[in-house]
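User: Nif-specific regulatory protein. Structure?
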Amino acid sequence: MNHGPLDVLVPTSRAIAGGAVPFSEIALTGVYEISKILASPNRLETTLSNVMGLLWSFMQMRHGIISLLADDGVPDIVVGAGWSEGSDARYRARLPELAIGQIVATGVPLVAQNIAAHPLFSEADVAAMQGGEDATVSFIGVPIRIGAKVVGTLTIDRIWDGKAVFRFDVDVRFLTMVANLIGQTVQLHRVVARDRDRLIAETHRLQKQLSEFKAAEPTGSGVKVSGIVGDSPAIRSVLRKIEIVAKSQSPVLLRGESGTGKELFARAIHEMSPRADGPFIKVNCAALPESVLESELFGHEKGAFTGALNARKGRFELADKGTLFLDEIGEISPAFQAKLLRVLQESEFERVGGTKTIKVDVRIVTATNRNLEEAVARNDFRADLYYRISVVPLLLPPLRDRKSDIPLLADAFLVRFNGENGRELAFAPGALEVLSNCYFPGNVRELENCVRRTATLAHGPVITRDDFACRLDQCLSSVLWKGQAAASANRPLPEIPLPVAPPTQVRAPAPAPELPRPPLALETPMTAGFPAGFPPFEAHRGAAERERLLDAMERSGWVQAKAARILGITPRQIGYALKKHGIPIKRF
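Assistant: Predicted structure:
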């Protein structure tokens, strides 16, 4: 019996009810019904599953699978008739890897009349596709394309019972038509997904801008705070203090751990002050040796030293009528502290190699992450300089005390990363929960590092929970802090004395029988509600005692017994202290 290309009869419900129906009519009806399914507004997996269910009724087939590839060529979506959430593995097991690979690589349909005799099907493939039956299985696979690129495959298998009549060429043409429709639908879904991701990113960007506007609302002085992201009570408290402090000319000392954003707050003080129209000059005192630091701050005359070919203004001159920010003030040597003290007291100095006295009008803002009170007690820092720079001390909260700001900061860092790299990444809804549950000993700087690293390695347009290194036990920060804790636990732990009276040979601006307590105070002493015998902490209160407690725990590798020896208390008392201040115990 001779058949034309579209005259093969297929057993469908219509054919059974009314007799033989030409395949051309069946194919036309099938394409029409499939196009309606593909146009329905469902999840892509559900749509493709419905297509396979309908296709089963038009063709002699047992199983059919649609496989869509990810960017790396690995099957990402695998769907068959009756698909449900979590059933992908069942369909993946029936995918012949070599056969699928050839279809994708060549872009040409593959037909195997007997998979058991075909070299592209392994014994495992044959066993999986036979399903325990001793039968001859044939296979047809066609590529799914978007333009010229193969993005997946449409495959079917059928049992040869010796009676059915197959025309593989006709079947291949029909499946190719269906695959082309599927390719157009996949492209449309991907375009919609990209638009959705862009909208998500735009929403995050607008939320970030809104949070910045909230943080930058006009204050009582009419000046906006820029660059500071956060809306937590801790940040709002600091900003309220900055608004008050900025109106005066008093020196400000910013205290806090490394990575808390001291420079941003120093700039905020400048921008909210009457000196906002003047220059804001910054110097990292720890980054320069003493000889270079002197020239940087005070300037030098021509010929003052080798290489001084011209006279040069120092940072004090450049900051005239403005603000000078001295970061890491605790790192300068005692000899240079004396030179700096004169400038702060008299507002005058001489350039290196010069004799002319230069007067300046500069507001000083300094910053440190060191305990200057202990440095004064050890004669490492001059008491008179300490009093001069610490007129108004401000403690900047660590990130662990402002966890509600983590999503806002993460969004801000991701927007900055996108702008620098020309990308449009966004966080998935659950991704920010991962960041919010992290401890971040390195504070905001560590959070930014985490966001940038994750964004750099992200494969898709959305950062998910599983993209973060901590979900894969590859968090570099945990290795870093664990290593520091281990090193601290293996070396002798020196006893650091509590603040005592400043040395008698150092003259302070005002007589003081003993060094004042750290400027961060709490109304109730740490010993309140504790057993008797807690004297080492009575001189430290509030945030300062929390800072000292954290320092001891870090130095002891978070071993409470060792930390208790450093502080001169019992392990039971340090347990009370940790509980009182809400300090979680790190586990390594």
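The two ends are 78 Å apart (CA to CA). Residues 1-19, 218-224, 485-540 have pLDDT under 50 and may be disordered.
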